[in-house]
Every structure is written in C-alpha cells, then in structure tokens.
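Q: How would the structure tokens look for this protein?
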Amino acid sequence: MKKVLIVGAGIAGLTAGTYALQSGFDVTILESHTIPGGASTSWRRKGYYFEGGLHWLTGSSPKTQLYRLWREVGALDDTVSVYNRDPFFRYEEDGVSAMLYRDPEQLRKHFLSIAPEDKKAINRLCNDIKKFTRMQMPITDLPKLAVKNPSKFPLSMLFGMLPALPRMKFYQNLSAAELGEQFKNPQIRNLLKNMIGEDFSASGVLFTIATLAAGDGGYPTGGSLAMAGRMAKKFESLGGTIQYKTMVEKIAVKNGVATGVVVDRQTIEADAVIVTQDTLNAIDTLFDEPIHEPWAEQMRSETEVLTDVFIGIGVEADLSELPLNCTFPASKPIQVGDITYKYVGFNNYAGFSGYAPEGCTTLTSVLMGGYDFWKSAKENGTYAAEKEKLANTILHEIGLKYPQIVGKVAVVDVATPLTYERYLHSYKGSWMTLTKKGQPNRQYPCKPASIQHLYFAGQRLITPGGCPVALTTGRTAAQHLCLDTNTVFQGNL
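A: Here is the predicted structure in token form.
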C-alpha cells in the first residue's frame, strides 16, 4: 500500500484524502491548526457562534452533479438539513428595500414594483437568469483513468447550457458595478454592486443568482465547522489519520521526485504528496527551489487576491425581527488606510439554533480588502487599536439603523487578513481570487511537470475559487495519483 501525505485538512485536503483512501492508499493529513476545515471554518466566543466561511454551498441541491460528490466525501448526508434563505440578499436605502428573491418571476415582479422605469433592464436580467439556471460545473474523469463508476456528462446537460453561452461573454465584459449602472433605480443598482463585490465580473453575479434560482446555494445545518467535521469523520472512518498541530516546513524533493515532507526539521517519507495549502503561497515557500513552471508564473503575475476583515458581534437581544441580512449606506464614509467603505452590511443568525445563548443573537459583518494597512498597523503597534476603532465604527453604523443593538453588545471579535494569513498560510491572508471584467476564469494544473509524485489541490487552482473548486480539485488530485500508479479510482461508491 502506497503512503500518501496531504498538506492541509481543508475541504480540498479532506476530499483528496477520502478519495485516495477509497482507492486503497495509506493516507495521513498534516494540519497546522487544531481543527479541520481550513478557510471553511467557524468558531465560538463566549457562547456565540461565528460563521467565518460558508454562506451558501453550490451543490447543496440533489439536482446538481456536485451534490453527489459532497455526499461521497461526507459533507452532506441524510441527517443534514439545508436552509435556502429567501430573499437571499437585501439592500436598503432611503426606506426602500431591494430584495434578491430566488424565483426569477418573483424577482421580476418585486423589481418592477420598486422600479417601473427599469422595466427593460429588469426583463433582460430576469430572462438571462433563467438561461443561466442550467449552467453547472461538469464532473468528469481524467482521460485514460480506470474508474470503478465513471462520471458522465450528459448531452442533455450540455444542450441545456447552450442558451446561456451567447450572454456569458456579455456579462464577462462587465463589472458588477457596471451591471448595476444599467439600472436607474438606486436600490437595484446598489444591490447588484454589493451582492458579491463591485469589482467582480458581472458573470459572477449572474452565476450566483442563477444558482439560487435553480434551487441550489443552500446553507447546510451547522455551517462550515460542522461540514468540515463531517468530512473529517468520513475520512477517519475509512482509516485515514489527521495529525493536528503539525506544521509542514518543506516538501522533500530528491532528483525531481517528491519523497515526503519536512516537519520539525525531520523528513517524513511518503510515496506521494498532495499539497492543499494555498497554491500561490506554497509554490514559493514549501520548496527549496520555488516552482517556476509557466502556469506558476502566470498564477504569480495574474492573481489578484481577495481579503477581508471579519467582525463577529454577539448581542444580548433577540433580533429575529431584523432582516436575515441587510446592506445599507454608511452615515459617512469609513476610511481604513487607503480604502473607503461606503456601505455596511451584516448577516443575522437569530433564526439559527445554537448560534447564540437563549434570547441572544449573533451578527457578522465583512469588509473587503486591506492587507497592507493591517500589516503596517501590526508593525507600528497600532493593530489592536485599529481593530477596536473599526469594530466600534461598524457597531455605531448598525446601531444607527437598528437601535435594538445599542448597549447590548456582549462580544466583538475581529479577524483581519493577518488572522487568515496566520491560520491558513495563504498569500496575504486571501481566500479567493478576484475575477474582474474581461478576465476568463483561469484553471491551473493539479500536477506539476517538474516534480513527480507531487500534486496540488485547492481553490486557487480554478478562479475565482470557493468550496466547489476545493472539492473538485481535491478529487482531481486523487485521480492523478491513481493514474500515475495504475490504480482504479474508487469514487462514486
């Protein structure tokens, strides 16, 4: 039995490990943290549960091909209920709310009710959403790989996707902000700008809305940490081992072959190594000689990272009457270094059991960007003060709109890009890749050409990233392992 070492117990690592175990390999995952999940994580502070990763899961619907994979790796099972939030997103300004409903016809009716002047743009958007609902991430197998139960991409699925293709280019060449500018109504305009971020390609907005319209994009019970826990349990039930608090310093390479990993200056030997730590960081830090293959150079030159500041808020009040989420204009611009935030948003977990003590509520808020500012603050000794200042500003803004929280905040927890960098060992604390207008989605190889018996997996390998990419690249890495060792891939059990 060939020994495989996997760096990282995130979604990609657990996926690759499970499929490798099913195919007959001896697998150990080395994880620097004390828990599984990687970027897909949650944590508690004084009884409040902060969802720091998953907000919706593509592939939560049984109608998708991804759903089968999530079940194969233990992320979803018959015990897991899925909550489909509706409306999914809400933007409020001047007392008027624009709400993103899942059903395209309900969305059309709602938008027309608040913006009859945008009838033409609304109809075009809703018609395109319907076309995009048939778009799916196809699940295929590597060519020439022996697979016990081959994955098939039905022609009917391909034909169903064809109507969306002519419109895809249109949205790829728009930013989310430019998509919003096609609407006269300020609420609809700002909803579209703020839903995933105004710098994103508008195609990301359409794909997200269409995912919801197709009945997908639900939130599994318990969120990120519970899902990672189920995956870890599945992996260990198959005979796999996870070594926590184990920092991999280097990948051992001899004569162009990966031979193991270095931990505490000692080499742990293996027949193959799968690296699921952020690829952009790994190719420069985990090897004596950084990897300089063309794809690696392209990743270095083209990647624009996404970072954020996460603010978890524990409120000693029942906020179930507040919206499940809401984004609104700040009373005045919020300046953090060279970044100006004009809007404030939050997620409200009042309706979720176990997320806060009885009669209390957990809120979370996210602000994008800011790595350089926070790094400088750390270096000049103002880091803690700046975190407190920003948290107080956000609390003030939410309190102006919803006075129910004023004087009732029990817990505030702030994570900056430096926090993500420390826990994830990701490049500048990033967790996804920003795909701007005009940029095609990039796909990088799971298997480098210059080092044998080495494989990569993780969300950096297919832009913009996310849980589905971590899942599928973990599976692909395991398939490459099987192909290289003349092993039958045992997925689809």
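Residues 308-427 form one domain.

The two ends are 20 Å apart (CA to CA).

Upvote if useful.
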